Amino acid sequence: MERGARDLADERERVLNAIAEARRWLVGARRVVALTGAGISAESGVPTFRGPQGLWREFKPEELATPEAFAQNPGLVWEWYDWRRALIAGCVPNAGHLALARYEKVRVVTQNVDGLHARAGSAEVLEIHGSIWRLVCTECGAAREDLTVPLKPLPPRCGCGGMERPGVVWFGEALRRGVWAESERLVRSAEVLLVVGTSGAVYPAAGLAHTARVAGAKVIEINLERTALSREVDLSLLGPSGEILPQLV
Ligand code: OAD
Questions:
Q1: Could you tell me the maximum CA-CA distance found in the chain, to the nearest angstrom?
Q2: Alpha-carbon Rg for the chain in angstroms
Q3: What are the structural domain ranges in the chain?
Q4: Which residues are part of the catalytic machinery?
């Protein structure tokens, strides 16, 4: 065998061994949690935030995803969210979402606001960064779900007449306390944590990998590449989550 072919064969064997090891941990576990990020939805056509085609290459988070940006120019912020809502509405869950939805032992904690885990059939998904389908009134605080694309009028209005905002967590904002507390509780009691398609760049979400490890869980990362969290995990499975997750669970 030539060198290149031998390297490829070695790498394939390494990945198969790693998947077999991960499967042994999962078979023995009763409580599994998946912490997911934008990468799990990439194969559905939803853009990620970082990386060569990431949204934060083209757009500035401080102009679109902060409370200050919204206070200054709600119309612009809403246009961006309305564009993303329409884009996501045209996407469907992929094999990675479906594998997690079929896996009855797992609870999903996601940083994604796209709702694709629920559309795949996952129950009780913890959306720690909120949902792009949720609208929250800036006057009375009432929240509602609205799947309409495009939204009319834009910015949308609550029944009380107040302007609504996207029900997502922006930079500089706190996570919703109940959702975060439940996520931490689940992660602390997990025997295996799957960390799927996240760069691990945004805290406190990324800290859940450390929390799980300290509490004794095996942590398995699934990503196209090594990340800020790779040194914290027990096993890194490099490849698309839509291919790896169905082999794992
Ligand atoms: P990022 O865009 O930071 O990272 C996406 C990760 O997915 C990268 O590590 C990619 O290598 C990986 N990836 C891409 N395609 C993949 C595939 N097919 N299979 C597996 N992995 C793949 O997204 P997040 O980590 O989710 O927050 O970003 C975290 C937060 O930053 C988001 O929730 C958002 C953003 O700013 C807020 O808006 C508050």
A1: 72
A2: 19
A3: 27-46+93-129+175-249, 52-90+135-168
A4: 129
Answer for the pair 148, 132: CB distance below 8 angstroms, yes or no: no
Our mutation pick for probing the ligand 1 site, out of 199, 225, 243, counting the most ligand atoms within 8 A of Cβ, is 199
| Tens-digit pLDDT profile for residues 72-118 | 999 999 999 999 999 999 999 999 999 999 999 999 999 999 999 99
Helix (H) or strand (E) holding 69: helix 67-72
E strands in 61-216: 106-110, 126-127, 130-137, 143-145, 164-168, 192-196
Q: 239 C-alpha vs ligand 1 centroid, how far in Å?
A: 14
Choose among 176, 31, 67, 190: nearest CA to 113: 176
| Residue with CA at minimum distance from ligand 1 atom 37 | 170
Fold observed for domain 52-90+135-168: SIR2/SIRT2 'Small Domain' (3.30.1600)
pTM, entire model: 0.96
Q: Looking at the predicted structure, is the pLDDT value of residue 1 above 70?
A: no
Counting from 1 in the atom list of ligand 1, the atom nearest the Cα of 61 is 36
Q: Answer whether 229 contacts ligand 1 (Cβ < 6 A).
A: no
Distance CA 110, CA 208 (A): 11
The class (CATH top level) of 27-46+93-129+175-249 is: alpha beta
Question: Which structure tokens are listed for 184?
Answer: 């931490």
Strand extents, DSSP E, 74-208: 106-110, 126-127, 130-137, 143-145, 164-168, 192-196
